[in-house]
Design a protein that fits this description.
Layout: H1 8-20, H2 22-40, H3 46-53, H4 59-67, H5 69-77, H6 83-98, H7 105-112
Length: 116
């Protein structure tokens, strides 16, 4: 956290929260480590991070990653992204929800597919 940018009252609030909730501070540190691991694509840091996350507020998140550890390692190694696909799905879902219960696949196709 960039404490030098906080106002005095915000710094006091952050200090009070950190004093009262040490588990939250540990989770923040783990989250920062996770972000650093993703940015640097450090596969070797994944194992120790999962071990440290096991007893923290991020335990459930860590277990989710550990269930498909091979995929998580590949995601750190490969430069590919499914961002474009997710963006298209995000656009499709509201259109699909608008027609829920009122129309079938024919109307959905007509709204999404542009005629040549």
């Amino acid at each position: 956290m960039e404490r030098e940018r906080l106002s005095q009252s915000d710094a006091v609030t952050v200090a009070a929260v950190e004093t009262g909730l040490p588990a939250l501070v540990a989770a923040c540190v783990l989250l920062e480590r996770f972000h650093r691991m993703l940015r640097t694509r450090d596969v070797d840091a994944l194992g120790p991070w999962l071990a440290d996350a096991g007893g923290s507020l991020l335990a459930s998140f860590g277990r989710g990653i550990a269930t498909d550890l091979a995929a998580a390692k590949v995601a750190l190694i490969k430069p590919w992204s499914n961002g474009q696909t997710e963006g298209q799905i995000t656009k499709l879902k509201p259109v699909k929800r608008q027609g829920y219960g009122h129309a079938g696949i024919d109307l959905l196709r007509a709204r999404l597919v542009v005629a040549p």
